[in-house]
Design a protein that fits this description.
The protein is mainly alpha-helical. The chain has 17 helices and no strands.
């Protein structure tokens, strides 16, 4: 059987361009995404004025799982993330493929939905008044092609564009916080609302759990960064501080945004529509040119699409290197040093979703559901891979944390959280497609005489 190291010499390595500051902005931009611009009102509908509580709980769950990711990415600083760790821990081709498919599916579907949202926001920002039909779809398709060109051009260009988009996206949220502080300081709003729980027939704890399943979608994204490990400088050294700092920064922003929102806008009003933060701006600063928020929202969804497509292509590239996927997906452009076959393949999938799939209900919750299931597996793999020592120093999380992470993530996957049943239907359909694709992948690998990966992959 050909050695993995020898196999790597056949293709150029990915270009290492990301230092700690670029990685930090990548993490922050990925977590912030576009969800917070629409999610605050939906979370408020579940829990009332104490909307900040589910964001804090989501942060703590994400933090525990991030500690597991840190041990694994510093131990195995290669692309493919959760799928790679699953492969090394269990060596089961089908299981590895399904984990990879779940992560890829969440990224590509999120990017495709963000592209359609980009088209809608583009229409609003430039007063085009386009109906949600062919015109929006064409804008979304064109935008995804631009994302692909940036991705093909090089990770340096993609990450630099991410920095710009993240700064603009962050400015919008800081603007909401600033307007909230100014209005509350002037005596406007009702600060007492932030301690009120309005959970309907549920208990306060039940309402927080249900709201956390929604709010967790705003915290996902930190896991995408581990797929960029082969394009980071000294990943084993910089990842721990950068990833933890990124999580803490976004958690503070979310809490301040949610407090500003419920203090300035009544809960019933905040929970209506898809632009809760726009309502906050109107309530706190009526003279502010609110059309600016259409531009910021457009940029936020653009950043979401860019980062998710970067992640998805690196995931396929990493799995192809581990011989779980056809080796053609591991090809790297000699000049640009980008995984061009994986980029083109993920782009075609995204274009298909944009063209043929309308906005999927409960997509955000389904994405969080799939990733929570993946996080459960990742927390278990940390404990399994303790038996696989490596020669270099790496981060080591306290043993209790992966156990807590597996239990909490597994709990949030279950139907007892009062999650919308439609999310399980969508997730089941996606995983069924994954099973079919695994069969196709298995036949392709056999037909091309590609050697399957070892049952117990060698330590890196």
């Amino acid at each position: 059987m050909a050695d993995i190291t020898a196999e790597r010499t056949k293709e150029p390595e990915l270009k290492r361009v990301m230092g700690p500051w670029l990685l930090l902005l990548f993490v922050v931009g990925d977590i912030l995404g576009s969800s917070i611009y629409a999610l605050t009102g939906k979370v408020a509908n579940e829990v009332g004025g104490a909307v900040w509580v589910p964001f804090v709980v989501s942060f703590l769950v994400a933090l525990v799982t991030a500690m597991s990711y840190l041990e694994l990415v510093t131990k195995y600083p290669h692309a493919a993330g959760a799928a790679l760790y699953t492969h090394k821990a269990f060596g089961i081709q089908f299981f590895t493929f399904m984990v990879a498919f779940a992560v890829m599916c969440s990224g590509i579907t999120s990017a495709s939905t963000a592209s359609r949202a980009f088209g809608a926001n583009f229409s609003a920002a430039f007063d085009l008044n386009l109906s949600p039909g062919t015109a929006i779809t064409l804008i979304a398709l064109a935008f995804m092609v631009v994302v692909a060109l940036v991705n093909l051009r090089g990770v340096s260009e993609g990450v630099k564009l991410n920095v710009l988009l993240t700064c603009i996206e962050l400015t919008g949220l800081l603007l909401v916080i600033g307007i909230g502080c100014w209005a509350l300081g002037a005596g406007n709003g009702d600060f007492s609302r932030i301690t009120e729980f309005e959970t309907g027939d549920r208990t306060a704890i039940g309402g927080v759990i249900a709201a956390t399943t929604l709010a967790f979608y705003a915290m996902v994204g930190f896991e995408d960064s581990v797929n960029m490990a082969e394009e980071c400088k000294e990943p084993s050294r910089i990842f721990p501080k950068v990833l933890l700092a990124g999580l803490c920064i976004t958690a503070v922003i979310y809490v301040l945004v949610s407090i500003s929102a419920v203090a300035l806008v009544p809960i019933a009003q905040l929970g209506q529509g898809d632009t809760p933060l726009l309502q906050v701006v109107k309530a706190g600063a009526p003279a502010f040119p609110t059309h600016v928020f259409a531009y910021i929202s457009m940029i936020a969804v653009a950043n979401t699409a860019l980062i998710n497509m970067l992640m998805a292509s690196r995931l396929l590239y990493g799995m192809a290197k581990q011989r779980v996927l056809p080796p053609q997906l591991a090809r790297v452009h000699a000049g640009r040093r980008t995984p061009y076959v994986a980029v083109l393949f993920t782009t075609l999938l995204a274009l298909g979703l944009i063209a043929f799939v309308a906005e999927v209900p409960e997509l955000g919750g389904t994405t969080a559901l799939l990733l929570l299931a993946v996080f459960t597996v990742v927390n278990v793999t940390v404990l399994v891979l303790r038996r696989d020592p490596v020669t270099h120093e790496h981060f080591r999380t306290p043993t209790a944390l992966p156990v807590i992470g597996a239990l909490t993530c597994g709990f949030l996957v279950g139907p007892w959280t009062d999650r919308n049943p439609q999310q399980y239907v969508i997730a089941g359909m996606l995983l069924a497609i994954g099973v079919v694709l695994w069969c196709v992948n298995y036949l392709v690998i056999r037909f091309t005489h590609a050697e399957p990966a070892a049952a117990t992959p060698p330590a890196e």
